[in-house]
Input
Amino acid sequence: MLLFLTVFVASYLYHGLGITIGYHRLLSHRAIKIPRILEYFIVSGGYLCFEGSPIAWVATHRVHHKFTDKEGDPHSPRDGFWHSFIGWLFAPQFKTPKEQFPVVVPDLLRDPVYRALDPSNPKTQWLICLSVCLVFRALILLFLGPVALVANLLAAATIFIAAFLVNSVCHVPQFGYRNFETTDGSRNVWWVGLLACGEGWHNNHHAFPQSARHGLSWKEPDISWYAIVLMKALGLAKDIRLPKKKDLELATDSAWTPDSDKIRLPDNLENIENPVAALEKLAEIESRLTPDAV
Output
């Protein structure tokens, strides 16, 4: 039982933080800076949880923020709850063509590791991910035994589903609450927040997309944020981007809208000659967010 619990907790954190910090707050929003080798390790937790190519994942997420709950959103409950939960993976209504990746994810395309995990053929991409995941679990079985393998699979499956709950449940009016009057349907849902290592405070996230912290008070526990604080204490994380206190207060005004805080992508993605990697210079263009402000 001790082995099972140890592996389950370790796997839950490894895979969970791989998605929430690695794929989401680090790669998608550039909310913190950490050493590249540590970045690869954290992101590997998400990759080994069957999340697939970081480039494709980040491209989808950045487009989601551009068109949240509007036409063009890859996974909105407005197209049906099942579609927002998982249906969008198999029958996407909106998909960013690879020709537009240089505009949407120019920063990741410069990284040879992420490019290697994103071949031009999507089927090959998923075959690579599946193969790596199977080898990883074969090693767990070989060195730790079947109990550890079951614990890892259960942890990975739970956090995998939790990530899909953020896309779906956290955009449905019947669930949760809203701290900020954003222009989308995002909600804070406490039990998704717990399951998804802090990602369930989704209305907070859509109000301040580039913030490294999603749970903005002690009443909104955010495991991913606690991990970031630990990395900072160890000298491993810097340029941690958070809302300014005065803007947290302004954001409670119902007349306020967060359009200026959305990821800025050109409206016409097809006609781009010199795309600028603005996400790498967020501290210069986002006046409402600043490193270590809270």
